[in-house]
# Entry
Amino acid sequence: MIVEGFGVEELAGESLIREVVYRGVSSPETVGREKMRRMEERAVKKFGIPSLLLMENAALAVVHEVEDYSAFAVVCAPGGNGGDGLAVARHLCLLGRDVRVYLVGDPEGGSADFRTNLEIMRRMSPESIYALTDESFKDFEYALKGCETCIDAMFGIGLNRPVEGLPRRAIEAMNRYALHIVSVDVPSGVDADTGEVLGAAVCAHKTVTFHRVKPCLDLAPQYAGDVVVAYVGIP
# Structure
């Protein structure tokens, strides 16, 4: 491993060669769900860093990894991970990329930061937003086939229950049809601490994780793909 603000680590398995890149992060520490939450809470409560700013930094880190592509499907559920995805989608729209955002679940039940980013997207590019339903699922599959990159922003480190119903169908469709998948923080459907697949999991080509490596990225590398550990401004 090389750590100079940017570092590279190659891991080899039976049929897996993986690259881990550290962008502005000097620590190779692996951090589980609860410790990561405490780090984020400390940043917000002790240092007064708005959670929305951390989300924006995370989104820009993802954009940095995908900006060379031109057509995107961004799949978001109504939580923090989905808020990251909406911010990613906004920046890609501003860069002139072709972006379709698919919302899985009730967006009005999302976190405050998710709802803020959704409202910005609704004002800025309402034609880019689609609700994923049984009726629109065929269109979703068609979009996955036609995009260059799918951004997986459904579930993050908080997922602790099996993925079922429409979210599971969405994951299965992404794996089946998307040419290239980039997951936000962790692949959706993988338990962040154990690497266990909770019903169904995204098989990403790359995962952009934030601040520290999560255990699942080492325990389930076949789902994570290449990993970028991105600086997002957490002290």
In short: The first helix runs from residue 33 to 45. Helices lie at 33-45, 51-66, 80-94, 112-124, 137-146, 165-177, 215-219, 221-224. Strands lie at 6-12, 17-23, 71-76, 98-103, 129-131, 149-153, 181-184, 206-210, 226-230. The mean pLDDT is 93.
